[in-house]
Amino acid sequence: MQELKNRAIELLENGTVARVLGWKIGENTYDPEPAFFDSVEAMKDFVYNNFCAANLSKYMIEASKLEGKTLVCLKPCDSYSFNQLVSDHRVDREKAYIIGVGCKGKLSIEQIKKSGVKGILSVTDSDPIQVETLYGNKELPYTAGMLSRCFSCKGKEHVVYDELIGESAETSTVDRFDEVRRIEAMTPEEKFAFFQAELSKCIRCNACRNVCPACNCRKCVFDGNKFDSAQKANVDSFEEKMFHIIRAFHVAGRCTDCGECSRVCPQGIPLHLFNRKFIKDINTLYGEYQAGADPEAKGPLTSFTTEDAEPSIVSKGGIV
Amino acid sequence: MSINNEFRPKIVAFCCNWCSYAGADLAGSSRLAYPADVKIIRVPCSCRVNPMFILRAFEKGADGVILCGCHPGDCHYSTGNYYARRRMTLLFSMLDYMGVENGRTRVEWVSAAEGVKFSTTMNEFVEKIRSLGENVRLGDLRCKN
Amino acid sequence: MKRIALENLPKLYAAIAEKQSLILPVKKAGQTNFGLWTEEADVDLATLKTVKSAKDAFFPQSETLYTCQRDGKTLSLQPEKLEEEPFVVFGIKGCDVRGIQILDKVFLSEPVDSFYCARRKHGIIVSLACAAPEESCFCKVFGIDCAEPEGDVVTWIAEGYLYWKAATEKGEALTAQVADLLEDADTAAVDAQKAAIAAIVEKLPYANLSLEGWNGKVLNEKFNSPLWEQLYKPCLACGTCTFVCPTCQCYDIKDYNTGNGVQRYRCWDSCMYSDFTMMAHGNNRTSQLQRFRQRFMHKLVYFPANNDGAYSCVGCGRCVEKCPSHLNIVKVIKAFEKEGK
To answer: Domain tally for chain A?
Structure first.
């Protein structure tokens, strides 16, 4: 952390960058917030710890409009999102000075609470996690507090950076398509019941959309006033299905599977299951494709071959 | 919708202007019958149909949605139907994944010369939707009364 | 004071539900929210905070106001019926009860909101004291005693029993309905719990948050503060904080075309959204800074200005827990305190 902070201060001082996009220390270890630092003095609040889960690449859309370069801290998986934003022409590579920061799997306070810890007074981001609570102290293995997305990590390599600081670790233990396969194996009734139960929790807060680096439209189709289903009203269960299917479709082929949608959902809806289904289908039908791996690559939904599968494949046993 | 307790499905057919819509015309002028349950919406190209159209049709009460366009390779705009093919494949797969009966959606390539194919396709599709019954998984309750 | 053994709670729920609908914390797909009780419902009183507050029971996220129906050449207009059956909301915590009292100030003052008013008239609040407050709680700052909430009936869970005390006429009537299931009890267990909670509340990280300098008179000073420029930056402009909040009361009215008519409905709005208070001439808040500022100014300045100094925050801490960017009202208050303005 100190090395990163010192380097950022150095780059600010020598004028290479006009500002730093990183994380600001919160009230506790576990609630750092994304922040812009535009002076050395402001950098006293800079922090980078294992709770810094937010993907900062989307903030670069705004930063690209500002004067001068912005130093941005990207974790390995965030670098894919950054690349995708470059190929979507929403972020200017020239306006960014990227420091690839190390990541050993990110922690989430929600995840820690799920293991039954209540009334947290302080928490460490170490392995094992030491938690001091109002109701006694506890020790948890690191993985008990890790975001579920980190169990199917894309790897420790950054796909774009100007320099690297810090060690990364591969934290993958499960195949990311396992959950998708589990659902695919269900009967239509079971599938419907599963998604109905999950989606009926949706409160239409739009956090998934607003955090998503692939959802980078200037104006979302769901925000239009010509549209007769409101983007903020959960009036009928159809609305949630419509919203989530269309949102997942609009990012299909551009979703890097960064997992931010599931991280931010206040109702804990596993939204990544939609995106991963599209990714899995794309991989199966149109060849392996990782959005953001190469900013020059042509997306699977903006290209085709004359030999593509017919849509009837779905009713003939599905895409496996 | 039901008349005399017999289920009459509502079918929306998106037909491309150049091939399938002309195919429907030919079916009509050749006096080939297909059920009146099919409501045709003419679009400039199958590629014009975005996933929202399909969902919107279901929302407003359709029991089945079919998309017809030019045969691959014959698109009036050269490549539109190739893009449509990828999009619809992924969308239909997603609907299936969410538990919507996969027989409710279909894509068929019908040329302007294929009046017979148009009519048999529609007959088949209506029969399929009849067997599936009313669409209850993707509709908006507010549109039901 | 009365009590009932915890293992007999299902009987209590069934007895209440026999006479009126019962709304209580129900766990569904891993998350606990207020929902209708049924035999199969997974009632969850152990989770301290439901994701959404109990606000829905009186001011639902969306509700139809009236329906226009077209039938040939005739148009009919059907206003939505007002609530006329009694219902019970069980297990509301002290902060959420205060939240409802804050909504009362908005919806029960002239012009009275008839939908809300009808629900308030028929709703019976059975509150539940908190047994284990969490780090995000700061209700004490707003003078709420989480160990002794308000409500028509107040309950406590202690030592294997649910203790029950009717506090109003409505509460007495409900108690009479379920009298067979309740037994008389002394207050020893409840008193012990109250003392324990009072000690824990003192130790909560935000227990001594200072609201000094926030009142209805500081409008210009706070509004023009340069601090907002820094504070709003990480905000994603999602509506999470407003939708989980027990006191956010803004709503929007929209029409839905059903194909053969129109349903006019209202739904919660969020000041974080770009179309908030959109009017024919456009939008009077054009930047996220302005929208972000609106939320906190409303809670800490505008609302006290119009309601004898009462803040429209109850310290439930839901926004503290749920904000995707870890922004919240506590950080805003502290940032202003630090700057000394």
So the answer is: 3
